[in-house]
Fold this protein.
Amino acid sequence: MASSKLFGIACFRSESSRDLSPRPHYPSMPKYPKGVSVQGDMEGSEVRKALFSVTGMTCSACAGSVEKAIKRLPGINNAAVDVLNNRAQVLFYPSFVNEDTIQETIEDVGFEAKLINEEVKEGSILRCRIRIRGMTCTSCSTAVESALQALPGVQEALVALATEEAEVRYDPKITSPNQIVQAVDDSGFAGILISTGEDRSKIQLKLDGVRTDKSMRMIESSLQALPGIEDIDIDPVLHKVSLSYKPYQTGPRNFIEVIQSTGSGRYNATIFPEGSGREPLRQEEIKQYYKSFLWSSVFTIPVFLTSMVFMYIPGIMHALDTKVVRMLTVGELLRWILSTPVQFIIGRRFYTGAYKALRHGSANMDVLIALGTNAAYFYSVYTVMRAATSEKFKGTDFFETSSMLISFILLGKYLEVLAKGKTSEAIAKLMDLAPETATLLTLDSEGNVINEEEIDSRLIQRNDVIKVTPGGKVASDGFVIWGQSHVNESMITGEARPVAKRKGDSVIGGTLNENGVLHVQATRVGSESALSQIVRLVESAQMAKAPVQKFADRISKFFVPLVIILSFATWLAWFLAGKLNAYPKSWIPSSMDSFQLALQFGISVMVIACPCALGLATPTAVMVGTGVGASQGVLIKGGQALESAHKVNCIVFDKTGTLTMGKPVVVSTRLLKNYVLRDFYELVAAAEVNSEHPLAKAIVEYAKKFGDENDGHVWPEVSDFVSITGHGVRAMVQSKQIIVGNKSLMLDSGIPVSVEAEDILVETEEMAQTGILVAINSELVGVIAISDPLKPGAQDVISILKSMKVKSIVVTGDNWGTAKAIANEVGIETVVAEAKPEDKAEKVKELQMSGLTVAMVGDGINDSPALVAADVGMAIGAGTDIAIEAADIVLMRSNLEDVITAIDLSRKTFDRIRLNYVWALGYNCLGIPIAAGVLFPSTGFRLPPWVAGAAMAASSVSVVCCSLLLKYYKRPKRLDTLQIRGIVVE
């Protein structure tokens, strides 16, 4: 984080200086186009400055890729990208490049860019999430998305039909979350704000004992005075207080104490009952559709019986055929009375949805249902009215068509929301990991426990000490301050074996304590916790649209209007054919005339075509796929990553921490001079203890074995310490100059490397070990061999990838000898060694240029440029900062076999998406002609409108159920045997 801040300062350090950064991050690109002379065309040209808002960057690697892409353009003088403020500042020559080209270049890298005026004060772009109720198909989601994107200050809006949520990036200086919610409401749907995305926590408290407005104002004033309070919203009707606060300054227990103190004990506050989450709303929607279907059935079943069953029972048939007024019968009147509430009260939702859609110039499923049912209902009203005013007219009503159509569609929607609720079970399961209560400890100044209290886990504040008993769940992220135990972290990291924990070790909220009592000091609470970040990551993944979904979005724009045209054309064709006697009169059922037959065909076409199935084909499969991935320890960041992963045919592996364990150990020491080994390691460890390099840590850990059996070993004092990146360290220890590093560092320091030392280095490299040279007072005295053991099953993983026709490559910063030895051991033929982070990214680009779809597998830190450059970046390992990784896929268990799981899952998910599209499109392509009556002339088969409506409802349910089958995904069986072998080996 510190480096990112320094980078941000360097980017915008001076308005007056044209040199935007002290040193380019990448090899300098030519500032002038080819063939242009500086003195001729460019000298004296005006240099223009442009400031762009760039959204989507998550780390310095993203900023680096944007900066690099801009600098490659002709006519760029300089460029700097500030990841902290989401800004790119570019100096360019307008004769050769313009703002639009620069903006397109940024967007080609994969980020959203907008040119902004320099006068606009820099401010961070915020993100808010909104739940949207009332959407039925992709036409609805497209209409809401358009309305949001048209709002001033909104940089990006993404609306997901499957989750019924919107994610909006906005400039808080121009618009606010309330205005965004209002825009959703104005577009004809109900919007509920879930989160504002600002860096603050939120909590809702229910007030007890407060009865007057004066008391409310007094409580509000008391809370407002607390440090760290950002915003307060009071609902006097529900006696609810919503607070936004900075968790590092205050917390919910402070709020409750202040409320109790304000009323001298008369007032109390508790956590407001959960009711704003996705699941309660889903349950409410399910309940509404169920109730609507039941009421609809109460009225529809008698309509169905009177029109299709009782007409065959002589006694009842005569009673129903009794005339009421002229030719109007009791049966017709009953059907009219019973179907009217279904059409206008129970079916009101379709009228409302159709009106809202048409008002905004779009057409959705509600429009089709409203048109179809109205055509049947009002034609039936016409026949009833005519019968009541005529002595001879005998017509047929279609009341059963409209009422049964609405009933079947409500049943379909009920089954659909029931099934859709199951697609997001992964998030519910993750959220259930957090325990409901926690035991809060009060400690005295000496660290002794003086009080224990059970509290709601949502009331935990930073630096609280929590007691975790055997069998209990860890309530918050933190570190152990007392006790030792084994903690099962499989629910978060996927690691099957319990991890030993003792004083100083970190723990993750939601994990299970197996044995022993732990006292844990909370460090990350609420939205900061690892569990919350994982939940947010999965939610964001389920929000993001896969590129393949654009296909459905394009179709949905003209789908409904096309269906209406086809429906009208069907009715007109059959009507004219009847009038012109183009078919025999015997084709017309005895109870109908040619107009009624044509009308039934037209209505059937209108209601059988379902845009919902197309709209749900991709998002439901992506939701289930990402959810299954999370349960398997593979976090896939959205549809884009999922779609790219199934095309991968080349994987670039980092070596350290990816193919190997990432924990180097000293395996041997060869002294070239007479030295006591303990004294030798005392000097070397003193120099290396200041380095963060994994090899340095391995040396320090090994050196501790020569010391006393205590934790606090004190190394000799060090002066003039210098770390040379990629080479080693230099320092003065006990008046001796110590140089520890590779061969090139020795040669650069003027220290000759003997033949004996050369032979030792060659020998270590052949054994896949890294040789570290040690010089004391400019004399080479020893070689330390360090090995980083291969991960169990690495060879099998590479072998399985080969069988999946995926090419594997090793790209590492380590030396050639070690890299080749490791590659040979695992079975990889292509090796790139001694590569810097930018070299790794260049290699990825080179592979992409050759036509390969490339995945990069690395540890997500020094590999971040390559992770960003790859089609799919896979980060090995996970931590509390998981949500801000540069990768597209995070392999939480740090197991290499999860690379195969990720690719296999993405392939299975996209097979399911293809199947959904085949079904949705095939259903419409097959259903519309049948509904239009193509089989009627040859077979006499026709599809009544209510059957067509039932088929339409069933199509959406079938697509969702098809996606839900992904829940039963099992990773390749070969991986299970591989894991067993891995455990046996250890």
Observations:
- Residues 897-932 form the longest helix (36 residues).
